Amino acid sequence: MTMTKLRDSFNVYLKKQATEEQELINSLSKRDEELRVLREQLRDKTVRLAISFEKRLKQDQRRVENTVESNTPSDIEKDFSEFFDGERLDACDDIEFVLGPSGEIEDNVYYPRLACLIFETAYEQVKEARDAACDLFQNVTSQLIGEAPRMCQELCHARKENGASAQLPETFDLLTGRMDEGISTDVLDGMMLSLKETSHLGNLDCFQKDVRKIVWERWTNCMSEMEGSFLPRPSEDVLTRLGDYIKACIRLTWRMVTQVPPMQLEYGAVQFDKDLHKLARFQHRAEYSRGADHLSGQVIACYLWPALLEAGDRIVFPGEVMCEPESDGYVVISPSLIP
After folding, report:
1. Where is it located (predicted)?
2. CA distances from 268 to 98, 197, 309 (A)
3. What digits encode the pLDDT tens for the residues 265-281?
4. Rounded distance, CA 283 to CA 330, Å?
5. Exposed e or buried b for every residue in 321-331, given b needs 16+ CB within 10 A?
């Protein structure tokens, strides 16, 4: 009987040890998983830091164009994110440099809003031009096809007289309307693809004057409205200081709209959408831990940066917005500072 009890007691002990061993194994496995996650997070942060550092080192080489670049959507996504954390913040610093020392409302709202307005305006101008590009290509292609026999004969004569380097100047009658003549879609698609592939190389100086003019008109008009515009006081010196930023906005938005199909900016929503927007960083409060669902439907006061969308409305980069303050709201800016 004694041996039986001893054996049973030993078996119980073994089971207990086995249970404790399994619990220890499970605990170690959990720690291993946590360690793996931390290592991945550290690796991601290291990569982002390296990219940011490299970008800062190359800031003086912005005008050196990369002839190998193919301007893919992934390139745009990466550059758009870097633009948000780089050129946009530099523009805000330049605005402060011209207008003088600023307070919380200027740093968090007015200056980012002006940088956003410039980016939106550049996008609208290049988007309009891109939409006209298809009509332009169709127009010129149609005339080339119709005049090809004559033009080719003249080119042959010129080459016989002046050699293979002979040039034959030609003019085209550009029609402002859309042409309905049947041109192969393959030809047009190829030309639009070539436009996209070389969008980082083209001379875009032609847009600068219009962008600056429209920004100034919108800026001054907003300041004359009854309601607050969330913009600093108008100053042409600011736009002069932001000359390089305006060029950078034009270049990036041109690369966006020449994608096939074009990428789009969204900055016209009235209400907060947790999938499309993120709340301005300064507007978070402790109760925000309830989650982004709490913000859905809140009225947007202004955009501080537009959202970037791919074809099919896939969200590539969420827009940053400031929502209207409410009595129980999450706004940390004093209401007295809001115009």
Report:
1. Cytoplasm; Mitochondrion matrix; Mitochondrion outer membrane
2. 29, 29, 13
3. 999 999 999 999 999 88
4. 6
5. bbbebeeeebb
